[in-house]
Design brief:
Blueprint lengths: L3 E7 L5 H10 L4 E5 L12 H6 L1 H19 L15 H26 L2 E10 L3 E6 L4 E11 L3 E3 L12 E3 H4 L8 E5 L3 H12 L3 E5 L11 H14 L2 E3 L3 E8 L4 E8 L2 E7 L1 E4 L3 E3 L32 E3 L10 H15 L13 E3 L4 E6 L2 H7 L3 E7 L4 H5 L6 E7 L5 E8 L2 H13 L4 H6 L9 H9 L16
Parallel strand pairs: 1-2, 1-5, 2-3, 5-16, 7-14, 8-9, 8-14, 9-10
Antiparallel strand pairs: 3-4, 4-5, 6-15, 11-12, 12-13, 17-18, 18-21, 19-20, 20-21
Length: about 475
């Protein structure tokens, strides 16, 4: 390790490792500091996303869906089988293998691009110095021309439900469950909670989701949230909103936990053999900054930055989960690119109005831009186009007809303001609208594009046509202004 670097990146998650690689590509002498140790005690790159977040959860979601589809839906295609079973330990082992492959891949990319790695924790000192404490306790201070803080986040723990061995788990611990629970409780009905609930519900577990807020998926478009709740209930998820957990009691001998919560009916109790706490995440900023480092935090521990991810200390940037905005891997990665290119003197910027979000339930839920509720609250005049997958020939052929595409456009200019999809391949379909919005497209623009047939993408095309009552494959509703 040298004594000085052009760029020091703290954290090798999806924001940090991308920033480090881009910095090296631009010719900067780059050091990336990572403290994450895997179960074998070895440094693992990729942060939360690759180790205990996006990737492992999707591996389990895909495995569980394939099992569910084989068990319940193959007969519709004329495929018959005898008793089908799933080896949960093998499913988890596959997940671990994918994580290992991808995290090792980042190490290879670092080597290929000339990024130097320091294994240990980092602290930003005054004068743009970084103190690095290795896992063996040794300390080294390096000088940096520029610093990018990408230290990520960790699950929020709540006093009424303290973690306990393998019975009460956070989202990280939940990924290590290797036997199908008989009865699973999930505190939190957000993205993480619903994905964890979906995995085990498909494998035969009785799952109860306990959500404190009265509204289900309050951050999503209301029409989509309503459809999602209906479909998830049909799949067997027991979703209880307006339910505030007040306490838990673990019986270690029986290997179960009793959860107490309050709802509109009063005090309720439920007994589970596993409980997952998924109520959100908090930024990793503890012991990260010296008092005189010149970087300020807000009351929740997030780092103050401007629209270009610059802190109040010139030359120090912060990206990803430690700054404002949604805690999404792709947002972190793009902020990393912006930060590095600003360091290089480029006029890079990011459009925060066009960041897609996805919930990987089945069907998938995806969104970008404004919701209908947000437009109503702002008093903006808008138009709506909705097209159901039930009217899509490709969706029918795939037995994936649940859900719809919804597009919102400005009443006067026709510019696309938002899109909300619940249905097959929603995560990929939403990106078509993201691209359109980035280029300032109108709903008419989307409606004039030739889409391949038969494809699921045609649902986006038809929803755009439906904005002005021109959809072909459904009966159009009488146009009305909002």
């Amino acid at each position: 390790m040298s004594d000085s670097y052009d760029v020091v990146v703290i954290g090798a998650g999806p924001g940090g490792y991308v920033a480090a690689i881009r910095a090296a590509q631009l010719g900067f002498k780059t050091l990336c500091v990572e403290k994450w140790l895997n179960d074998e005690g070895k440094t693992s790159l990729g942060g939360t996303c690759l180790n205990v977040g996006c990737i492992p959860s999707k591996a389990l979601l895909d495995s569980s869906h394939k099992y569910h589809e084989a068990r319940d839906d193959y007969a519709l295609h004329g495929i018959t089988h005898n008793d089908i079973a799933i080896d949960v330990k093998a499913m988890v082992a596959r997940k671990d293998a994918i994580v290992s492959q991808l995290t090792g891949g980042i190490a290879g990319l670092f080597k290929a691009n000339g990024v130097e790695l320091a294994e240990g924790s980092a602290k930003v000192l005054a004068g743009k110095k970084v103190e690095i404490t290795a896992h063996d306790g040794s300390v080294k201070v390096v000088d940096a021309t520029s610093i990018i803080i990408a230290s990520g986040s960790s699950p929020v723990n709540i006093p009424p439900a303290p973690l306990f061995e393998d019975i009460v788990l956070d989202s990280t611990g939940a990924l290590k469950i290797d036997e199908t629970p008989k009865r699973l409780g999930v505190i939190g009905g957000g993205v993480i909670g619903l994905e964890m609930a979906s995995i085990w519900n498909r494998l035969g577990t009785e799952v109860v989701v306990i959500e404190a807020m009265d509204d289900f998926l309050a951050m999503m478009d209301g029409q989509v949230a309503k459809e999602a709740r209906k479909l998830l209930k049909k799949q067997g998820l027991d979703i209880r909103t307006g339910a505030l957990v007040t306490g838990t009691e673990v019986d270690a001998d029986k290997r179960e936990v009793t959860v107490t919560y309050k709802d509109a009916k009063g005090v309720q109790t439920e007994v589970f053999d596993k409980l997952i706490v998924a109520v959100g995440r908090r930024p990793h900023t503890e012991n990260l900054l010296a008092a005189d480092a010149g970087v300020k935090l807000d009351e929740r521990g997030f780092i103050f930055v401007n629209d270009f991810c610059e802190t109040e200390m010139p030359g120090i940037y912060a990206i990803g989960d430690v700054v404002r905005g949604p805690m999404l891997a792709h947002k972190s990665s793009e902020e990393g690119i912006v930060a590095v290119e600003r360091i290089a003197g480029k006029k890079a910027q990011m459009n925060y109005d066009c960041i897609p979000s996805v919930i990987y339930t089945h069907p998938e839920i995806a969104a970008v831009g404004k919701t209908e509720e947000q437009l109503k609250a702002a008093g903006d005049a808008y138009k709506v186009g909705v097209f159901p997958f039930a009217a899509s020939g490709r969706a029918m052929a795939a037995n994936e007809t649940a859900g719809f595409v919804k597009i919102l456009a400005d009443e006067e200019t026709d510019r696309v303001l938002g899109a909300h999809i619940i249905g097959p391949s929603a995560a990929d379909l939403i990106q078509q609208v993201v691209i359109a919005m980035e280029f300032g497209s109108s709903a008419e623009d989307l409606g004039m594009i030739v889409f391949g047939h038969p494809t699921l993408s045609e649902a986006v095309h038809e929803a755009a046509l439906a904005v002005d009552g021109h959809a072909i494959h459904i009966a159009n509703r009488k146009k009305r202004k909002k």
